[in-house]
Amino acid sequence: MTHEEHHAAKTLGIGKAIAVLTSGGDAQGMNAAVRAVVRVGIFTGARVFFVHEGYQGLVDGGDHIREATWESVSMMLQLGGTVIGSARCKDFRDREGRLRAAYNLVKRGITNLCVIGGDGSLTGADTFRSEWSDLLSDLQKAGKITAEEVTKSSYLNIVGLVGSIDNDFCGTDMTIGTDSALHRIIEIVDAITTTAQSHQRTFVLEVMGRHCGYLALVTSLSCGADWVFIPECPPDDDWEEHLCRRLSETRTRGSRLNIIIVAEGAIDKNGKPITSEDIKNLVVKRLGYDTRVTVLGHVQRGGTPSAFDRILGSRMGVEAVMALLEGTPDTPACVVSLSGNQAVRLPLMECVQVTKDVTKAMEEKKFDEAMKLRGRSFMNNWEVYKLLAHVRPPVSKTVSHTVAVMNVGAPAAGMNAAVRSTVRIGLIQGNRVLVVHDGFEGLAKGQIEEAGWSYVGGWTGQGGSKLGTKRTLPKKSFDQISANITKFNIQGLVIIGGFEAYTGGLELMEGRRQFDELCIPFVVIPATVSNNVPGSDFSIGADTALNTICTTCDRIKQSAAGTKRRVFIIETMGGYCGYLATMAGLAAGADAAYIFEEPFTIRDLQANVEHLVQKMKTTVKRGLVLRNEKCNENYTTDFIFNLYSEEGKGIFDSRKNVLGHMQQGGSPTPFDRNFATKMGAKAMNWMSGKIKESYRNGRIFANSPDTGCVLGMRKRALVFQPVTELKDQTDFEHRIPKEQWWLKLRPILKILAKYEIDLDTSEHAHLEHITRKQSGEAAV
């Protein structure tokens, strides 16, 4: 990375102008994207304009197109919807309207357009771009613009960001707003579950998604619904019988409620709509259950954006500015999106085409084709849903294997969801599944019991660890552990937990030399709010903790905005790992985030104080500073608070807040429920295979490194990695992986907080083609 290139990012936009607009249906997180486009645009030296009311504002011009300032996007991050407004626009569909839009842009010297919206909005942008030179020559002929203006605005660059709560755009793992919509849905499902249990009711919930069943599918995974209806995969012809049988089976197993999720676009095999009323009438008529329908409607679009959507919006905004400023007349209009946790650029029209192909396949009743085009992630969700919902637990007396499940380390939201899916997939495969209470300590003391299907009923939405969890490591009790492995005939171990689960795994590997009993396959599923387990980019529970921190920071910012001239210093958890502090800093719009991985000196602290002093001279008179609990043993939260208080005297006053254990609690977010459910299922499938491979002379003997793994998410795939191979990638003293992907997001945090720093452009996404994505292993 040369110094010139560094310098380039700061001057990339000089003499250029960018317009940003939001169009089509609104989605939470659009504001985060607008804020990032404005601030990064200004950072590069470009002028940035808001276009109010979507394409309508582009056509009407005048006051609808206004220059944005740094301060004008302050406090936007935590607002739902879109602050600059969105409208469905008929005028832009006619060439006459596009002519007026072109005139408005040329007159302001704007040749870069960032469009945030759904597939309709993005297709419109592409049409506009392809007609650009014709529109200009028409305007010149009519004498509305000069020849000089034509040369100055000779081509139009377009970048799209997909904002749509349906997640219906092909090529992107997650569209802006999808995660927040899931948050709204799950809040309601959780609330309905409690009343349904009181009255033994059946609830039919209708969620948005005219042509795309993503919301319905993930909701049903996240709440353990009995049935889901989605447009991509209509039920078999005798579905009415099947549904009623399923509902009554659930009841006979002791459940007091049934939940059925319906996407608004649900259809049967002949393309006839299946409505929530149809389902209600069926259940009432055939089973006589007390059945209620709840249609969620626009609630799903509302509310504050989740941490995920804020970070997604911010990252996409940065990438969009870079794509615009690096664009040439020959680069196709592109969409920036996330694949796994990597930013990618995809040709806009390829994505639009595949999105249209899905609709077409569904119209032609080629449903398998539609499912394939939706991509790997959608298919994975569907497979896990089918496994967990559609199978009757086997009643056979011959048990194939015995697998034990346990929690290790500190509690993390989503642990129970992982236990539930591990237990149920195990039972479906015909295994005997044992649960171990209180981690390795319980394994040594024999606190072990058999779990049936309904043992884990309703666990998906419950926070904490119902099995009980401890940080104790296994080494000092190998004798007792070995005895219990023999006594209970344990042939495989699924360990769900944090850094101790991983180090415990390493100890088990070493113990194999002395104790033959420890030669059984085991798999570690990372679950910790700190997200510090080697071998995985994400761990179960971190998303929930991040949202908790975010909500608190929002409230604190509101308090600071009321009192003015106030700076809050907030301490987050994470041990030595700065993931929570950094990501919460991005999601809450912090001025600084102090972490262990990026050493800082007194000079840095001084620069930050000075930065806040300057900030108090603007209209934004408040500050938010995050500090990871172990970022520096001498620069404690109290020290930083005292320093800020002294240096800010007469300019701002400081307050401090230690968030503490609330970060480990709470009901798991949709991401954590879904992630945990899929990890549990994947781990159990691996386990059954490994146990079969390890059969030697009538007993299990697993001694190779690949029989003790961490199941982690790496970039775009879920992978099993031997714990022994991960040793070299671990800093054991500080309990963190040596390399962490999220560190490259830190420059974004600083730029958005108005620091003059070098943006490392080497990490940039290159244009990919969408077809490759289908074949590649998509992430969760």
Characterization of this structure:
Belongs to the phosphofructokinase type A (PFKA) family. ATP-dependent PFK group I subfamily. Eukaryotic two domain clade 'E' sub-subfamily. Pfam families: PFK (PF00365). The chain has four domains: 17-175 and 305-357, 3-Layer(aba) Sandwich (Rossmann fold), CATH 3.40.50.450; 178-300, Rossmann fold (3-Layer(aba) Sandwich); 391-528 and 670-732, Rossmann fold; 542-664, Rossmann fold (3-Layer(aba) Sandwich), CATH 3.40.50.460. It contains 26 helices and 26 strands. It has a seven-stranded mixed β-sheet with strand order 3-2-1-4-5-10-11, sandwiched between helices. A seven-stranded mixed β-sheet has the order 14-13-12-15-16-23-24, with helices on both faces. α19 crosses α20. The longest helix is centred in the C-terminal third of the chain and has 24 residues, at 670-693. It is globular and about 90 Å long.
